[in-house]
Amino acid sequence: MKIVKLVWKNMMRHKLRAALTVLGIAIAVTAFGMLRTVVTAWNVGVEASAANRLITRDAVSFIFTLPLSYKDQIARVPGVEDVTFANWFGGVYIDKNQFFARLAVPGDNYIDVYPECIVPPEQLAVFKKERNSCIIGSQIAERYNLKLGDIMPVDGDIYPGKWEFVVRGIYTPKDKVTDPSNMFFHWEYLNERMKDQSPGRANQVGWYVIKVKNPAEAASISQKVDALFENSPAETKTETERAFQQDFLASVGAILTAMNVISFVIVGIILLVLGNTMIMSARERTQEYAVLKTLGFTGWHIVGLIGGESLLIACLGGGLGLAGTFPLVAGFAAVMPKGWFPVFQVETITLILGVSSAVLVGILSSIFPIQRAISTRIVDGLRQVG
Amino acid sequence: MAADRRTMIEITNVSKSYRRDSLEIPVLHSVSLVVPEGEFLALMGPSGSGKTTLLNLIAGIDRPTSGNVIVNGVDIGMMNESTLARWRSSNVGFIFQFYNLLPVLTAYENVELPLLLTSLKKKGRREHVEAALRLVGLGDRMSHYPKQLSGGQEQRVAIARAIVTDPTIIVADEPTGDLDRVSAGEIMALLEQLNAEYKKTIVMVTHDPRAAEKAHTVMHLEKGELSA
Ligand SMILES: Nc1ncnc2c1ncn2[C@@H]1O[C@H](COP(=O)(O)OP(=O)(O)OP(=O)(O)O)[C@@H](O)[C@H]1O
Ligand SMILES: [Mg+2]
Question: Which ipTM did the prediction report?
């Protein structure tokens, strides 16, 4: 017989109590795993949907423009797949109070970089060929009852004058998060008029949009781009599109924080469940520990006995709980609408967190009973009526 | 009680008091006692007179408030906890009134417990455990759990556990206190045998005059003081 066998037999002494404790830990660990999976999936989603597009803007303020010449320099940075750009046009279309974004963009590649705006290929082809054409979102088409070939007159403010655009394309958004109310027209059309009327504002770009090959390189590419224009009259600030959309991040951040907190509250609950079981068990065995000490067993043996039992229960519960996480997550993934999360699976980090929480709980739960068993004097322990 | 026998236990001016809250409860008053090797001593006395306390001091599971306890030539009052624990495991066999077997372990495993602290391998342990259980007449009950045994049998398992490490002294606190007459007789016969054949020095606390009869010497403890 080994001490390990005594640990096992001690645990099996109250089979129902041990089973309930293991089950309680398992359920909590499953909930923990599920929550962590959602948190991780969310983070992955934010990263994946955004990180392959970077926004480069003027380092000082969004309202300053950048030279067109930056485009080729940015395009040469390793890891950059495509570079496009946009100017905020502003202006008034029909009603001053009805706002929607109007952007001057390069006709040749802007839509390629924003594939979530789905334009029928034949419409896109016509748009690309016609200097003063535009593409509008389906919501704008609906709101103003616009059809292909209609003309949209816009009063310019940032770029003064009367402007007219021919609707040559209507895009539909790929998913719910894509804005269906934008209007895109040819930047070249705008630039020609600037060359004519106010040459100082020609060849100026509002912001660049960089499509990167590997989202993991987003940070290093951002740094390289900004380094290119350091100490130039127009320094830049490059960041992921999602980081750029601060509002979005802030609101999701609060939910994520809540889920994070709850997942660790669950670890606290496991601690209470196991701690309670261990304290009850150790109290019942006060006399037995005194007998063991009488026979010559030392404090370390007691640590092994109580700590071992606690760890055993924690690991059984943790293992069972993590095993239960997989089918639960798979079930959720099956019933969840596609596109909520690009990736929804149990990640390695979740497993590591689950296992280490279980081990930590196992250790913490045994500290108090161990301390009690060791500090009880033998004569007092023996007098205790079991 | 020949005077030429070696001294096994020597207690000199031992006092013991317990502290309960701020109250000092004196239990033993300057007790002195010499027990020669091979002695079978019975300690008697009314309840609360300090018999268990004295036994615990001899066995090294408690420490005197003042005075010396020398067992087998060593002053156990001078040892630190872990040395004392090791000393107990190789020198003292314990027999309790309520047997104090671990309920989750079989008779075999209970007797094997003290051997886990030795360097004996599994095979060596088996030989010792089987010999001890056969000696107490339970060679056929090795795989029984305590609750499957009678009180007398449980106490015999406890005796096997006490002798399996071949200790020099055996302390027994009311070993027959919870047993019927027949079982008590068997236990006393065993203790006599251990004393006569295996030369174990035995100190036994008892209320039972029939048990005390088997001892060589009977001493009385009354209000913390010892008399013959
Ligand atoms: N650990 C302890 N803490 C406080 N008081 C104690 C402790 N152990 C013993 N005492 C007190 O010391 C006195 C003697 O106790 P002890 O157990 O030695 O008596 P005893 O002679 O063995 O009695 P019994 O025949 O009932 O077993 C009692 O008054 C008891 O209350
Ligand atoms: Mg007593």
Answer: 0.94
